[in-house]
Amino acid sequence: MNWDDDTDRIVAPAADGEDTAVEAALRPKDLGEFVGQEKVRQQLDLVLKAARQRGATADHVLLSGAPGLGKTTLSMIIAAEMGAPIRITSGPAIQHAGDLAAILSSLQEGEVLFLDEIHRMSRPAEEMLYMAMEDFRVDVIVGKGPGATAIPLELPPFTLVGATTRAGLLPPPLRDRFGFTGHMEFYAPEELERVIHRSAGLLDVEIDPAGAAEIAGRSRGTPRIANRLLRRVRDYAQVRADGVITREVAATALQVYEVDGRGLDRLDRAVLEALLKLFGGGPVGLSTLAVAVGEERETVEEVAEPFLVREGLLARTPRGRVATPAAWAHLGLVPPQHGGTGSGGQQGLFGV
Ligand SMILES: Nc1ncnc2c1ncn2[C@@H]1O[C@H](COP(=O)(O)OP(=O)(O)OP(=O)(O)O)[C@@H](O)[C@H]1O
Ligand SMILES: [Mg+2]
Predict the structure, then answer these.
(1) Portion of the chain with pLDDT greater than 90, in percent
(2) How close is the Cα of 24 to the center of ligand 1, in Å?
(3) How far is the CA of 139 from the centre of ligand 2 (A)?
(4) CB under 8 Å to 133, separation ≥6 — which residues?
(5) Where is this region: Small ATPAse domain (RuvB-S) (predicted)?
(6) Whose CA is nearest to atom 25 of ligand 1?
(7) 297, containing H or E segment
(8) Number of neighbouring beta carbons within 10 Å of residue 309
């Protein structure tokens, strides 16, 4: 398996081709259907209601958060709640200021412009966006060199919804031009259970509460992963069981896909096992750890570690990677005793 392409993993947070095809059908259509994110939902509800009452276009909204938490979904909900059309584009698609000018000048009044991956826009486009957001105006440059002139072009009021997985990468002048910023958090297991029940209903698959809880616990706080695991469990339930997703069906199915009870996959477990069994829990350098699992440094650092750190299973320290007590417990191993000879570290090294 090619781990460098993160999308090969069943627990990858980014969308794969199948997700893209299915997600449209599973997307909540209004704020009421949108599960969890209570704070963002309440705040956004106020922003949108107030704008509607005033008969005005809603303020620009920035949504930040990890992949698969619902940024695209929420942008579509914003448009739906405002009864406005939505235009979808992304930072990487806008390389020249002219690309952006063309989009902006064709917007209708009140339209929502969704700019995904806004942190990946080119600099000149970004600067044009500042003026468009603040003054609803762009300067179209005609001609080149000293003879070039800027022709101001009025824009109808619109709502920019920007999405980013890396809010920290946005230049402050851009961040400041959003009237509201919503930070999307990872979802609690109970919230993911609600996502799973809802999706199961839409996919017409029978699932009991324990089955939903089992999938939720392995979904890494991410609705996209919950929906993906649900689809794989559904396949298993259909082929190997009587079609109903129970706790046992979910657990067995996800074992087949090597997703453990806490949502770790094969790579995550390989990293943890190497850290515990070969290096007594660390500290060990990233490069050494990567060699031990036969992976690139970057793969370990960018693909496996973030979730392990978030789960409190692994810590990054100045001296190297260290396993936490929770890591030993998760793999059912006993940490080495400090001090004595023939310690657990030795046992870890040669024993297993
Ligand atoms: N709060 C939610 N309630 C129900 N389903 C959700 C929720 N958030 C996300 N989903 C589901 O998860 C899937 C992924 O969501 P979405 O595409 O909006 O994520 P994203 O944040 O835009 O991800 P990316 O950063 O990769 O673009 C969608 O199919 C949607 O159905
Ligand atoms: Mg998205």
Answers:
(1) 79
(2) 10
(3) 30
(4) 60, 160, 177, 178
(5) 188-258
(6) 67
(7) helix 297-298
(8) 14
User: What is the rounded radius of gyration, in angstroms, for the C-alpha atoms of the chain?
Assistant: 24
**Does this complex have an ipTM over 0.85?**
yes
Q: Could you read off the pLDDT of 39-84 as tens digits, one per residue?
A: 999 999 999 999 999 999 999 999 999 999 999 999 999 999 999 9
Query: If you take atom 13 of ligand 1, which residue's CA is the nearest one?
Result: 224
Cβ(15) – ligand 1 distance below 6 Å:
yes
∠ CA 85-88-92, rounded to 5°: 160
Binding residues for Mg(2+): 72
Identify the structural domains of the chain with CATH numbers, from first to last: 37-183 (3.40.50.300), 190-256 (1.10.8.60), 266-351 (1.10.10.10)
Q: Count CB neighbours of 20 within 10 A.
A: 9
pTM for the predicted model, two decimal places: 0.90
Ligand 1 touching residue 282 (CB < 6 A) = no
Q: Which of 96, 76, 94, 95 is nearest to 86 (CA)?
A: 76
Q: Is the CB of 211 under 6 A from ligand 1?
A: no
Please compute, for residue 178, the number of CA atoms within 13 A of its CA located in the half-sphere on the CB side. 22
Look at the chain and count its residues.
Answer: 352
Asked if residues 143 and 191 have their Cβ atoms less than 8 Å apart, the reply is: no
Q: Determine contact, residues 272/330, Cβ cutoff 8 Å.
A: yes
Residue 192 exposed, middle or buried by CB count within 10 Å (0-12, 13-18, 19+): buried
